[in-house]
Amino acid sequence: MKLIYFLFVSVILLSGCQSRQEPQQAVISDDSLMTLAQYQTFQYFWDNAEPTSGLARERTHMDNIYPDNDQHIVTTGGSGFGLMAILVGIERGFITREQGFQRFNHIVHFLDTADRFHGAWPHWLNGETGKVKPFSPKDDGGDLVETAFLVQGLLAVREYFKDGNEDEKKLAANIDELWRGVEWDWYTNGKDVLYWHWSPAHNWEMNFPVGGYNECLIMYVLAASSPTHPIKPEVYHKGWARSGAIKTDQKFYDLETVLDHYEHNDFPVGPLFWAHYSYLGLDPRNLKDQYGDYWKLNQNHALIHYRYCVDNPKNFEGYGEDCWGLTSSYSMIGYAGHNPSEDLGVISPTAALSSFPYTPEESMKFLKFIYNPSRDSLVGDYGPYDAFSFSAKWYLPRYLAIDQGPIPVMIENYRTGLLWKLFMNAPEVKEGLNKLGFTY
C-alpha cells in the first residue's frame, strides 16, 4: 500500500508541474496536499499501531526508538482519535473496508478484555497485556475524559458499520456493549459534577471535578446520552457550566471568546486542542445552548491564535501568516501547554492543521508552509513532527497520538463532514443533546 501511494503522489506532483517549456517544479494541488497530509497522519494509527492491541501508541520517535522503552504503551483517548482516522483511511481508499473492519474487530475484542474501572478505561494501557499502566502515581484507574474520547471514536465506527453485512452488524453490536458498560453516573461521586479520575487503590484522591471551559465537553454530552448510566442535566448545568459562570463577554483581537477558558484567570483563550478534541465527532456547526454558540467559540479561538501569531508580540522567529498555532505539545522544556499566555516560541503543526474547518485559508497557508521541500526536516513518515521552534533552533522528530489523530479527522470534516455526520447520527447523542438543551 505504501508503494502504491508513493507512486500516486509522484503522479500528482508531476501532473501538477507547469508547461513543458518551463522548468519542472513539484506543484501539488491544495486537494492533493490535504490528501497527502491525511494519508501520512493516518499511517500513525495504521502502520505504527501497537501490534498486539491494534491501538495507538502514546508516542513514537521517527527511528522507532521509544522513550522509556514504552513501545507497548497505548493511549485510550488517542486511540479514539485513531479509530476515526482509520475511517478516513477507508473513505479515502488508503485501505479497504475489509481491512478496516478487521482492525476494528481486533481492537474491540482487546478493549473488551482490557482493564476497566466502573466501565471506564484508564489513560494508558499495556498493549500486550491489557493491564493499566499508571499515568501518574495515583492515576491508575478509570480516566473518564480519555474514555469519552475513545467512546466518541467507537460510536463513529458503530454508525459506519451498523447497517453492513452480518459480521459488521456484530461488530456494531459489540461496540454498543462497550458503550453501555461505561458508568458515567458513578463518576459524579454523588455530586452535580463529573470527576476525571477514580482509582480502586486511591479512590477519589486525585479530586479533579471537571468544570468548563476546556476540552471536555464531549464527556458531558456522552454522559447525558448514555442509555444505561446517564447523568442528570443538573450535572452539566451546575458542574460543567458552573451555574452559568462559564459564559463570558471577553474579547481578544476583537473577537468574542464566548465561554470562559480560564476560571480565575484574565487571559481569554487556551491551547487550540480545546477546539478539536470534543469536536472530532460533535458537530459544532449550528451547535448552541444557553451558554454559547459553539461554532463561533471554536472559529474565534482558532482566529485568535492566528492573529496572535501574526501580531507576534514576543517577536519569535518564524511566526506569521503561514506559520501559526499554539497547543499542548512537546517543547524545549518537555511537554507544555502552549497558548498566548504561555508562549515559548513553539509552533505545533496540529494546531493549525486540525483547525481546517474553522480557518480553511489560514490552515492551508500553514499546510503549504510545512510541506515546502525546504522544511522537509519537519515532516516524517507520519506527517509533520509534533513541534518546532525557529527561535530556539529546535525541533523534535517525535510524534504524539493525541496530536496526530485530530489532523486527518478534522481535515476530513472540513472536506466532507464525514465524522460529524457519523457521530451526530447516533440516536443516543441526539437524545443527550436534547436533554441538555442544545440545538444543532
How does this structure look, described?
With 440 residues, this protein is mainly alpha-helical. It has helices at residues 2-15, 30-46, 76-91, 97-113, 144-161, 166-180, 217-225, 233-240, 294-311, 349-353, 360-370, 401-404, 406-415, 418-424, 427-436; strands at 59-61, 73-75, 124-126, 142-143, 197-198, 251-252, 255-256, 328-329, 336-337, 379-380, 383-384, 387-389, 394-396, 398-400. It has one domain (2-436): Glycosyltransferase (Alpha/alpha barrel). Helix content is 41%, strand content 8%.
What is the fold's blueprint, element by element?
Layout: H1 2-15, H2 30-46, E1 59-61, E2 73-75, H3 76-91, H4 97-113, E3 124-126, E4 142-143, H5 144-161, H6 166-180, E5 197-198, H7 217-225, H8 233-240, E6 251-252, E7 255-256, H9 294-311, E8 328-329, E9 336-337, H10 349-353, H11 360-370, E10 379-380, E11 383-384, E12 387-389, E13 394-396, E14 398-400, H12 401-404, H13 406-415, H14 418-424, H15 427-436
Antiparallel strand pairs: 1-14, 2-3, 4-5, 6-7, 8-9, 10-11, 12-13
